[in-house]
């Protein structure tokens, strides 16, 4: 029994020492973090701006504002579809007229609007990837997610314009490849 | 033999987690000091799981540095009250600021001014000046709509702390308008998911 109590006292002493060491380690960690936080404390990257101010033109696109900068986004979208500036601009204009800038017109655009919302470029690329024309400026997609694509080959052929905000649609298509692309 | 075994068992139970957590805290602090914020976040998360009581707020600080203010606000546990550490509160205010929760940020910064050192104090003053400019004048209805929309979205995503923070911000802004625009929607605890955009075009 004496041995047992001796062992117990030894273990208890060890534990006290261990806890003290652990406490020291904890204190050291907190001190290190405190010093690091102080050294790394910087000002916010952007100046304060109310959300409605941040949406004003010229203040950049904010990821939290899906409806911001519709024109710029439409141009981007156009450029994704077509290799030429003209085609991109045409598409951008059509997109604008059709009101593709926000999800509000998603219904009218047959699901196309969804692709423009939230500035989700990666998703847009993925969704549009299979619908893009292979020609230089030729080819245009349909507005539906299941519509076919006609891979146009001409430099001007194939661009279809939006017909305005009521439908946003253009064309076409059965998915059958043509050599000239779709033209409205 | 029973007693020592009991003591050993008890000791192991008590001390098993703490040293490991402290090691991760220390590793996280080192990473943070070297601006390896992603790595420090991982270390703090591990320490948090191992039971380190301060690990969560350090993880939140790392999230601030990683430019993830909304997650930081959540990890801090919200923006209410004054914390024990002025430096942590400074990061909490930065998280609020970067999430556009300016009223909350200013409230936190006001409590820091007297507790921080001169460098932090100067930064606090600059942030407060910046916020004062942004909040100058009557808040627009569009701004209040935005906060309520964010609150509703956060609530729908199952993020009640964030929803509450945006809801309180909307309430504070609404209270600065004579018409208290949508104040009923901006109740503490988060705004309504149902939003009524400013269709009338009122500023």
Molecular structure report:
- The complex is a heterodimer of chains A (about 180) and B (about 200).
- Chain A is mainly alpha-helical.
- Chain A contains six helices and no strands.
- In chain A, about 45% of the residues lie in helices and about 0% in strands.
- The radius of gyration of chain A is 30 Å and the shape is elongated.
- Mean pLDDT of chain A is about 50; it is low at about 55-184.
- Chain B has about 200 residues and is an all-alpha fold.
- Helix content of chain B is about 65%, strand content about 0%.
- The model of chain B is unreliable at about 10-15 and about 190-203 (pLDDT under 50).
- The interface between A and B is large, with 42 and 56 residues.
Question: What key attributes describe this structure?
Answer:
heterodimer, A: about 180 residues, mainly alpha, about 0% strand, disordered C terminus, B: about 200 residues, 3 domains, 10 helices
Distance between the termini of chain B: 80 Å
Radius of gyration of chain A: 30 Å
Residue fraction in strands of chain A: under 5%
Structural domain count of chain B? 3
Task: List the helices and strands of chain A in order.
Answer: HHHHHH
Structural class of chain A: mainly alpha
Biggest β-sheet strands, sense, barrel of chain A: none
Rough shape of chain A?
A: elongated
In brief:
Chain A is mainly α. In chain A, 45% of the residues lie in helices and 0% in strands. Chain A has helices at residues 2-40, 51-54, 70-81, 85-98, 112-116, 121-129.
Task: Describe the protein's topology.
The complex is a heterodimer of chains A (184) and B (203).
Chain A: H1 2-40, H2 51-54, H3 70-81, H4 85-98, H5 112-116, H6 121-129
Helix pairs in contact in A: 3-4
Chain B: H1 2-15, H2 17-33, H3 37-49, H4 55-65, H5 69-76, H6 86-98, H7 102-112, H8 118-134, H9 141-156, H10 160-174
């Amino acid at each position: 029994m004496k041995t047992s109590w001796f062992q117990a006292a030894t273990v208890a002493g060890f534990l006290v020492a261990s806890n003290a060491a652990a406490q020291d380690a904890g204190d050291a960690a907190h001190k290190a973090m405190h010093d690091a936080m102080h050294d790394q404390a910087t000002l916010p990257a952007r100046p304060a701006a109310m959300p409605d101010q941040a949406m004003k033109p010229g203040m950049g696109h904010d990821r939290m504002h899906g409806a911001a900068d519709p024109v710029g986004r439409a141009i981007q979208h156009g450029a994704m579809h077509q290799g030429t500036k003209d085609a991109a601009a045409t598409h951008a204009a059509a997109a604008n007229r059709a009101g593709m800038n926000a999800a509000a017109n998603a219904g009218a655009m047959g699901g196309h609007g969804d692709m423009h919302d939230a500035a989700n470029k990666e998703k847009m690329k993925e969704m549009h990837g299979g619908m893009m024309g292979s020609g230089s400026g030729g080819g245009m997609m349909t507005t539906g997610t299941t519509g076919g694509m006609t891979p146009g080959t001409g430099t001007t052929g194939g661009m279809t314009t939006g017909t305005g905000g009521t439908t946003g649609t253009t064309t076409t298509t059965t998915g059958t490849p043509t050599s000239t692309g779709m033209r409205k | 033999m029973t007693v020592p075994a009991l003591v050993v068992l008890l000791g192991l139970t008590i001390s098993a987690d703490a040293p490991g957590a402290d090691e991760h805290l220390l590793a996280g602090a080192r990473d943070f000091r070297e601006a390896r914020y992603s790595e420090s976040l991982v270390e703090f998360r591990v320490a948090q799981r191992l039971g380190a009581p301060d690990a969560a707020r350090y993880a939140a600080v790392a999230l601030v540095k990683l430019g993830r203010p909304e997650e930081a606000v959540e990890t801090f546990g919200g923006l209410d009250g004054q914390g024990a550490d002025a430096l942590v509160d400074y990061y909490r205010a930065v998280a609020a600021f970067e999430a556009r929760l300016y009223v909350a940020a200013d409230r936190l910064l006001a409590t820091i001014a007297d507790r921080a050192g001169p460098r932090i104090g100067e930064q606090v003053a600059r942030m407060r000046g910046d916020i004062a400019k942004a909040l100058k004048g009557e808040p627009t209805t569009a701004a209040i709509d935005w906060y309520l929309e964010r609150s509703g979205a956060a609530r729908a995503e199952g993020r009640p702390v964030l929803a509450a923070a945006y809801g309180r911000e909307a309430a504070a802004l609404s209270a600065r308008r004579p018409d208290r625009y949508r104040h009923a929607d901006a109740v503490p605890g988060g705004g309504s998911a149902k939003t009524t955009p400013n269709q009338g075009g009122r500023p």
